Amino acid sequence: KVGALICGLSLTNQHTSVLFIFPTALWVLYTLFKYDVADTYSLFQVGLRGLAGLSPYLQLPISSFFFKARVSWGDHRLFSDFKKHLLREDFGTFRLVSSSEESTLIDNFMVYFNDSSSELTIAAWILFVVGMTVALIWGSSKQRETMLVYMSMFGTYHIVFDSLANIKNPTGIFHGVLERFWLQPSLALCCIAGCGVGMIIEFLKTKAKCPQLKYLFLSLAVLAIGYQIQHNYEDCNENDNYAFWHYSRHILDELPKRSILLTSGDFSTNTFRYHTIGEEYRTDVMVMDMQFMQAYWFYIMLMPINFADVTFPGIYKPGAASQYPFYNLKTFLDKNFDRYPTYMCVAVPENEDSITGFYEEWPFGMCKKLVRVSDNLDPLEYVTSIPVINLETWPLPGVDRYEPQTWEYTMSMSMLETYSKPSVWLWNKANSLTDKALKMRYYEKAMQMMVDNRKHIFDMVEKGLVSKNIIYYVSPMEKNMGTWP
């Protein structure tokens, strides 16, 4: 009964738990009927406790009914929206990204095998095979039963998940997305490997008549655990990781009062929400997820609470003709630009070309400022006023510590690109000029900005505040502007 409650709670946290719960539930039912202890009342109690474990989901319709949610994924007063969230239909149930890319079960399993062999070592897989073999051939009926449950959990997970995981040839952050879901099957793998060690010891003690060797295997098991801790501790030790705190805090500090900040996705949205909602810092900045703005429920559930003074002329649809009930980015800016300075920490959505000729994206720290073309701002004056990242006050996540599949690495690359963006942008502006004297002023300023930024980076390397390996990441960015002295 307690297990049913825990299973329900686990499903509210992670959907893939069902791939462990399903074979486990079948084994529990089989055991109950096998020993003739199952009856209608006991099964009803088990089911009731399983439903009780799902009770956190009740928070969704309750908060929607009272319009209290600062953040939401739908109007959960409606069963259709509740079901959509429950099954993660925006991405596709048991899918990882909202794309049509397909990959095969074998491809995904081989990626998992290579990754787990690196993190857990090949010894874990050897013990995994040994554990299964020894249990199924020489184990008792109870040991075989237990091993079959672990094997069915491991097998069910990989057959279902690897068949549906739609990330083909994962690299960088997409490889990291897959890694998060591998924790669950790795748990079953380690359990089976642990059973393998235990059964080898038991086999040596009883069948092979070599009880002394059990101490050798116990010592090896302790050494294996020690090696895992030593091998992975540094990668898992995040006690000093404030990368995302610094990221959102510094960007919010740079924005003027009553700004609109357009974002999209987990990285650029949730970091700002943590500060503005969780810590109630810079609550005057209005953080708007452009994906949410394309949903009807955004205007029912979130707009009245968070953005009551902002004008939304319908439902946002990138690139659409501005005709009710839809509006495009240009129309949104036309309605709000004079009241709220608007910034973007996201790329302009695909097919969104409505702002062309009317608004431009100008670099602004790690974000972009939307500028009205008709205002005729001076780019030379503008680049002297924009914020520049100071690595003494804004620590850079170590590019040599974090691997490409981590968000910290992604952030580091974004921060490094920020150093070159204003100078590259000004250089490109110069390329479009016909006035030769003005063009040379633009070129000279762009060159000077790049030199100053490089000097700052080298100073931080000399002070030991950033790794010297950062130089290898900065240099390729200069290719955007040709040969440098």
Task: Explain what you see.
With 485 residues, this protein is mainly alpha-helical. Helices cover 57% and strands 6% of the residues. It has helices at residues 2-13, 18-34, 40-53, 59-65, 79-86, 105-119, 122-138, 141-164, 173-181, 183-206, 213-236, 243-254, 265-278, 298-306, 329-336, 379-383, 407-431, 436-462, 470-474; strands at residues 260-263, 286-289, 315-316, 326-327, 342-344, 359-364, 367-372. The strands form 2 sheets. The protein has a 5-stranded mixed beta sheet. Helix 7 crosses helix 8, helix 10 runs antiparallel to helix 11 and helix 17 (407-431) packs antiparallel against helix 18 (436-462). The longest helix has 27 residues, at 436-462. The protein is globular, with a radius of gyration of 28 Å. It starts with a helix and ends in an 11-residue tail after the last helix.
